[in-house]
Amino acid sequence: QVQLVESGGGLVQAGASLRLSCAASGITSNDYTMAWFRQAPGKEREFVAAIRYNSHTYYADSVKGRFTVSRGNVRNTVYLQMNTLKPEDTAIYYCAAGRPILSAIRDPPMYGYWGQGTQVTVSS
Predict the structure, then answer these.
(1) What is the dihedral of CA 118, 6, 105, 43, to 10 degrees?
(2) How far apart are CA 77 and CA 62, in angstroms?
(3) DSSP one-letter string for 60-102
(4) How confident is the model at residue 10 (pLDDT cuts 50, 70, 90)?
């Protein structure tokens, strides 16, 4: 049984940093594209960042230069380092695993496994 468990969310002030973690079980995360999505109230789920099996990384324009996705030294762990947080980053953040083609890496339906989400709230 595949499980993705996110942690590390919280309430911070604008300009602060947070690091989200995603612990995967039931799969070997290195064999998958691991991605982060987020969903704010009343909005659709949107792509944030992804790391492919070859460690190439991809980012939404809104987070490029502020967020970094990486694979951890702990097996089957993926991180999202978020710096210079803004109030518009407030959302539930989800970890996902899948094998999308590169052109579809930002599409939620391309990911078959999802975590339960972790809340990130950034106050102004």
Answers:
(1) -10
(2) 24
(3) -TTTTTTEEEEE-SSTTEEEEEE-S--GGG-EEEEEEEE---G
(4) very high
